[in-house]
Amino acid sequence: MTSPGDQHRAPAGGGGPAGGRTPQGRPRLGTAGRFGIGAAIGAGLVARSAVRGGADFILALNAGRVRVMGAPSAVCMLPIHESNAFVAAFARTEILGRVDVPVLFGASTFDPRTDVEALVGQIAAWGFSGVINFPSVILLDPEARAGMERLGLGWRREVALIEAARRAGLLAAAYVRTVEQGADMAAAGSDLVCVNFGWTTGGVAGEPATQDTAGAAAEAAAVFRTARRLRPKILCFVEGGPIATPQGAAEVCRASRADGYIASSTVDRIPLETAVSDTAAAFKAVAGLTRKVEALENELLGDGRRFGLIGCSAAMAHLVRMIERLADSDLTVLIRGESGTGKELVAQALHRASRRCDRPLVAVNCAAIPRDLLESELFGYERGAFTGASRSRLGRFEEANGGTLFLDEIGDLDLPLQGKLLRILESGVVERLGSNQPHRLDVRVLCATHRDLRAASAEGRFREDLFFRLAQLEIRVPSLAERIEDIPLLARQFLSAFAARHGGPPKVIDNAAYQRLMSHRWAGNVRELRNVVQQAAILGDREVIGAADLIPLLDAPAAAAPGRAAARPATPAPAPSTAETERDWIVEALRRNRFRRDATARDLGLSRKTLYNKMRHYGIA
Ligand SMILES: Nc1ncnc2c1ncn2[C@@H]1O[C@H](COP(=O)(O)OP(=O)(O)OP(=O)(O)O)[C@@H](O)[C@H]1O
């Protein structure tokens, strides 16, 4: 009897022997005296992972392949005549040369056309380190097995495979189940016998348990005793059946005095089943969590979100309730609040929530239009009404017919215009300048101011009768200082909107920075907050905005909006009082906005059309 390793040539190529080589240069299946692990698998990824985990050798088996294809190991018995081609197809490309341990080819002898000697020669030529008899007749049910044996395609062919492997200088490993089979394979010169208890139990696709670990160990121990008597250096391994965990393997190996364990379903199917499904479930949970966070955030963003009004504070909730209540009335609403609190947004919300929502909303900034032009802007004019009126023109009131007119900064209207506005509001009729033709209009008027109109009327700067006419309904927009709990939400919204415009993920704000934001005075209210946050997003190098990024911005007297030549001033730039200075006023604004007409019109609170008319009027190219 020959001992493993003697008189064998080294296989051509193949995996290097992590377990070392015999003095003759033949790879070993692990190191003597050390518990060995083989991995019976069917895919490159599993092979490499098993080796990383310490597997001493790889068995490339068709059962491993069908498992990673989603079938139970038993399916490997079905397309049996193609088994060797099937194994070669994946094992040569995915495993050989990619792992540094011996790779044994799971060779089938079932096909009557297979010449066992030639098959072994082919396996050696491909570069495998050895062979194992797989699939084996020992895994067939007795009836099928008897049929195979009757035709001479059974156990004897597998023994011949092991003998041929030995002759070819390959490592030989043999699956056995009984003492007789163990003796046969030891006598054939196998380097390793592995008692295969049948398809592994456990897991989703596992077989039902028919044997316990104690029974399996006793069975294996008997096989090993005989095999070792015949071939003292033979390695004795166990596999399958009730061994579904490392603990199970330890129990069977200890009790049977096995040298090692061959892991098959236990190293791919069972861990993959749980790892993949647990991981997918974890991702699913994250998605669910994200949806929950979004839902929570939506809830937190508040009911006003549909109007673009962010905030979950009680003050904001009250504001939104007021908007909903007052939206459908045709009464005039006076929107009060400090500069930058969102009065214009409230006006837009009142319009959008009203029955006029599909009609025009026309906004006029009374402070941004020169006084002598405001009248014609509001009420329109007929051709020849004044020098330069070469055509008649609709006023903003008429443009808003059927819809809403929003008069922003109404507190800046001069007294003569206040009188005219009052008359129009009372009568519902507009006459263009230079005409006495009345136009009856259906316009809902909203107005806003940061000034105290009551005090102004007490001092005679604002007509009291107009004040009462405008303030039929009143909404006060809270300052940011009154709702500091909305600051984090607003800041996050501004960062998201900024990221959506400029690309990339939104930056985040750390806790210290939030504290800094929440302790600031915010004289410019939400507008100032938006500008500070956007500047921090632009200027900071990191993805996280910290307190240090905010200090220079919060200490600066005014934070200009990035991307715009200038933030909308808290108090609009004073309008010129005479036609001589208006030209300069427009030229100056054009310069400030780098001659971009749209930006200039916005800056001055004029419509594009009005700005163009004025430019033409003053001969500004
Ligand atoms: N609750 C809010 N949610 C989201 N953005 C807001 C909110 N309030 C204000 N803003 C934003 O702040 C900026 C200033 O708002 P807005 O122009 O409506 O203020 P305002 O009170 O009309 O100011 P001013 O008195 O100076 O005309 C705008 O960019 C607006 O979109």
UniProtKB/TrEMBL annotation:
One Pfam family, short name: Sigma54_activat
Keyword annotations of the record: Activator, ATP-binding, Hydrolase, Nucleotide-binding, Transcription, Transcription regulation, Two-component regulatory system
UniProt domain Sigma-54 factor interaction: residue ranges: 309-538
GO molecular function: hydrolase activity
Low complexity: compositionally biased ranges: 20-29
Region named Disordered: 1-29
Official protein name in the record: Phosphoenolpyruvate hydrolase family protein
Organism: Rhodoplanes tepidamans
